[in-house]
TrEMBL record:
Enzyme class, first EC level, given as a word: transferase
UniProt keyword terms in alphabetical order: Acyltransferase, Transferase
Annotated coiled-coil segments of the chain: none
Highest taxon listed in the record's lineage: Bacteria
The keyword Nucleotide-binding is annotated on this UniProt entry: no
GO MF entry, a single one: acyltransferase activity
Keyword Transferase part of the UniProt annotation: yes
Protein EC: 2.3.1.-
Pfam family, one: Acetyltransf_6
Domain BioF2-like acetyltransferase per the UniProt entry, residue ranges: 186-295
Protein name: GNAT family N-acetyltransferase
Amino acid sequence: MVSVEYHDDLKEVQSDAELARLLSCEVQSAPFDRLEWWRLLSEHCSVAARLVIARNGSGAVVLPLTGSGAHLTQLSNWYTFRFRPIISPGADAIALLTTLGRDLATKSRRLTLTGLPSEEADLVAAAFRKAGWIALREQSDVNHVLPLAGRDFTAFLAGRPGKLRTTLKRKSGKVATQVLTHFDPSVWDAYEDIYAESWKPEEGSPAFLRAFAEAEGTAGRLRLGVAHDPEGRAIAAQMWTVEGGTAFIHKLAHRENARPLSPGSVLSAALFLHVIDVDKVGLVDFGTGDDPYKRDWMEQVRPRWRLDLFRPQAPGNWPILARNAARLLAARAKRG
């Protein structure tokens, strides 16, 4: 027997020992899969959680959603590298997700999930189709990663583009770098000041990012890098985290007027050195986005997918489905 539950209050989930453990760092080795991440989203980014949970006594599936009423979406925002359902080890995921989909059909007519890895996109689409939903899929983004395959930093660096290696050789002696494994308020203040003078758009939620960095520092997972020019001025800063054999690159910025010193590249090299030779990670994850500079450091690109799931019986979905069908027919006609 599979039961389906809905929780809008994360404290309810925290008080459930089985779910609290499943959604903790004991089981999950990426921040985006944990209850604490969703709590920070709710607290600092005005993203209201609605967790849909299916379990049968031997396992559970948690689908973290947001929104209310007819159209629900994934519980994530611009800080989330990827989205996926959280599945207990050994659980019958397809059966649990199918039952979840059937029950959710009584409460919502449309579900949009963005940022899914390929395997999870296949799984969710198959389960919801089995539950009677229409599943439309398209690529939403890309994820740049670096599998180390046993290489140390020297071997990794030897494989970087010649232009980058030349830049590092010429500029490393002009920039002093430091990598901290704890949260330092003064360094974080420097990061925020640097970010304000960088090429980056305005930060979406500085309070979220600081709270996350503080928590990761307490847990020992934070890698906070800062670079200084010859006069001692902080000119670049980056925030990474490390866990489960993976280094996640969350944020990076440098002052525009320091660009001739290439402080971002020099600081990146210092952090790669640390996570590869000290932390011994097997993978570096550069998050989403196809920024050209990522290709200098990363070696593989993985797709991220968007699933649009519709209940075909819901009249509110018919105009959307009709427009999509017309778009597909036009695309086929154009191809020949």
